[in-house]
Each structure stands twice: as C-alpha cells, then as structure tokens.
Amino acid sequence: MTDNQNKNQMATEIQKNDLKLSSLTPEDETLWGAQTQLSLQNFNIGEHVFSSRFIDVLVSIKLYCAIVNHDYKLLNDDQYNAISYACDELSQGGYYHQFPLRIWQTGSGTQTNMNVNEVIASLANKYNHRINGGTAGDFLHPNDHVNMSQSSNDVFPTAMHIVVAKMTMEKLIPAIEIMENEFQNKEIEFKNLNTVGRTHLMDALPISSSALLLAHNSQILAAKKSIEESLIAVYQLALGGTAVGSGANAPTLFGKKVISLLAKQYQLPLVQHPNLYAAVSGEGALLRFSGALKELAATLFKVANDFRLLGSGPRCGLNEWRLPANEAGSSIMPGKVNPTQCEALSMVCLQVFGNDLTVSMASANGQLQLNTYRPVIIHNILESIDLLTDAMTSFSESAIHELALNHIQINTNMSRNLSVVTLLTPRLGYTVAAKIAKKANQDNISLADAAEALGLFSQYEFQHLIQEQLSIYFKSIETE
Q1: Catalytic position from the list 52, 91, 218, 330
Q2: Which entry of 23, 200, 331, 476 is annotated as an active-site residue?
Q3: Does residue 5 carry a pLDDT above 80?
Q4: Which tops the pLDDT comparison, 406 or 1?
Q5: Confidence band for 7, pLDDT divided at 50, 70 and 90
C-alpha cells in the first residue's frame, strides 16, 4: 500500500474503535435488500440455511476483492474503508440472522451471494453516513461496489472450496488423528494377546488382538491419505473467472491477487484453477473429495460392525471384547449393554453414503458453462465433514479408549478353534488335515482327540505338533 493508503487505513481503524456497533445495527433491523427479500418469498423451502462458516468465507472473499479493487483504483478510499469496516464487523459474528436464505434456491448460489452483498452494502452505507455524512455520491451499491469484478458463478464455488479445505484441516483431520492415536494405544495394550481369526464369519487361523486394531488403523490412514490427496484439486479456485470463466469485467490478474490474500488469511495452499472455464462449469474436485469421505465412511462402517460383533453377548455371542457400558442399553431389560457408539457411527456412515450419492448426481448434472447444483453440493459435503468429525471423536473417546478384552472367553475359543490344523497341512497334507477337522467338528471333540480316534497320532503326539507349530506361527506374526 502507498503512504496515503496506510494513513487512511490507520485513520479508519481509529474511527472504527470509536463506533458502537449497537448504534449502527439494532438486532431487530433488517440489513438485507430487495434481492434477498424476493428470495425469501420465492424459495421458502425447508429449514436448511447456509452455515455460519460458509457465510464467513464469503465475507472474507468480499473483503479481499475490495482490497484488490482498491489497489486497482476501482474503489476510492471512502468506498474501500466502508466495505472493509462492514466485512470486519460481520467477521466478529452476531449477524448470522441477516443471512436467512435456504439451501434450496438457485443452483448458482446467486441469492446468497446477493444476500451477502446487500448486508455488506447496508453496513458500509451506515458507516459512510456516520463518518462522512452520507451524500448520494458516497452510496455503495451491492452489485456495483461490493460485487465489483466478481460473479456469483466464481465467488460461490470459491467459497465452497475454501470452507471445505478449512473444515477438513481444522476438524476432520484432527478427528482422524484422535482415532489413530487411540488405536495405537490399544495396539500396544493388546500386543502379544492372541485371539481367534475369522473369515466368512467362520473360525480361521488365530491372530494377535493388536493385529485387528492395526488393520483398522491402517485402513483409516489410507482413507485419510485419499482425503489429503483430493484436497489438492479443492485448493484450486474459480475466482477471476466471473460469469462463464472468461474473466469478463475483472482486471487482469484480479483473481490471482485475491486468491493470494485468501491463501495467507487461511494458511492454505490456495491457487487459481488453471482453467477457469472448467472451474466455473464443473465440480469434479468436490466430487473426488466426497468420494474420499465415502471411503472413510466405508472403513468406519466396518470398524463399527467388527466392534459390535466381537462385543456381542455377553453370554450368547462372541463376547471377546468388552465394550464400555456408557449408558443403559434398554428401558425394559435391566443391565443390558448395547453397542450404542457402533450404532451411532454406522448411521453417520449411511448418511455420508447418501450425501455422496447426492453430490455425485449434482456434479454430473451441471450443464454447459455452469454447474447449477452447487448449494446442495456444499450442504451435503459440509454435513458429511461435521458428522464424520463428531462421530469419530465420540467413537474414539467412548468406545476405543475404554475397550477391554474378555481373556477367559478368548482362551476358551482359542482352545476350540479347529482352524489351527491349517498349520499342519504342509506336513499332513490338506486332505488328512481336513479329515481331522471334520471328525473333531462332527463329534464335538478336540483336534488331538480326533487325530487319535482316526488312528493317525496319539493325543500327546498331535498336541505336541500343534503347540510346536503355533509357537513358530506366533513368533512369525509378532515380527511382521
């Protein structure tokens, strides 16, 4: 900025501190204008409105657009100072009731963009009136000044990408890392404690209890990697493309300059999309991101199901894991403990699957130079981020953290597991090993008893062979 600009900014800051917000904006005063009012009348559909986080990002975009327009001398000092003041006041919170428009509106998000323009213009004009007396020449117009060098078609998707990236890094990734940490702690706690493996829900070779959690954690981290990789495209913004991607009515490099300021504000590697026509017309980046969320949800769904299967019982199920009794499980059956965290997490996963389907169809249905399904896309993606974040945190703290093993039940199941005969197939051959297992299962006896009954080994000989192979097997999997 020039020296004059710095002086103006300092003077503006002093003036701002002297102003009382309550004298400018009574809580019952409506700051939006005609376009917002028409939208309220024409799109009175449901109760879903845009989140405060999304509105905050839109306001930030307007502020930095004003800064760059001022640098280009498209806005004079008074106009810039007024818009800057308005955006600063909105960023403090307390004005979200001024953004009442529903998600279910025009597919470009034009009504919400205009809502933000009108509220900023109203606050800016109040500021001008207080500071300068508010002559007609000082009047700021929502379109001509606040929306200068912009279009809803590039501002709205820019806000979508920024809020998704911001919430992912601030909320979702930390929630994944909380779960990762809890799994790692349980892996250490359960290390060298062996249990029955199961495939097709049937008995299989034994594994270590920590291996179950290690597998879950590895799958969670793979989903996390998919999310992080999908963000690379999300960081690419449409700003500067204006209506159709051509950049009409915006100065050269306008978008890049604004995006540079936004990148510093949010500490994200934001850049302008290499093809603004593509950025305005499609939402492939958020489609891929939603797919990564679905991958995470699918993994979490398996985690929840494994927890509830291994904790089923306590007398008539697998009963190998002791799930924490966080609350009463039944209003009629005393002492019942239900896998409530598993059920809540599962429902969240199903909702994410549904959200992804909506995002997929919305992304596929944009026509020609504009995707006109953007409000429903951002609504569903933000809901998925919020739900996954909260559900993972809850499950980590209320299910994984307090998880314990039922050693008695595990040892009983281990002693009855017929699949350990698999370890002798290299010596006995598949046919003989299968014959022993079948005999044991039919007569409900141990493998050693079955081997003796078939005249193949004495109980002692067979038990010695099994223990020897089990020792070798467990040592091998411990070192993996």
Answers
A1: 330
A2: 200
A3: no
A4: 406
A5: very low
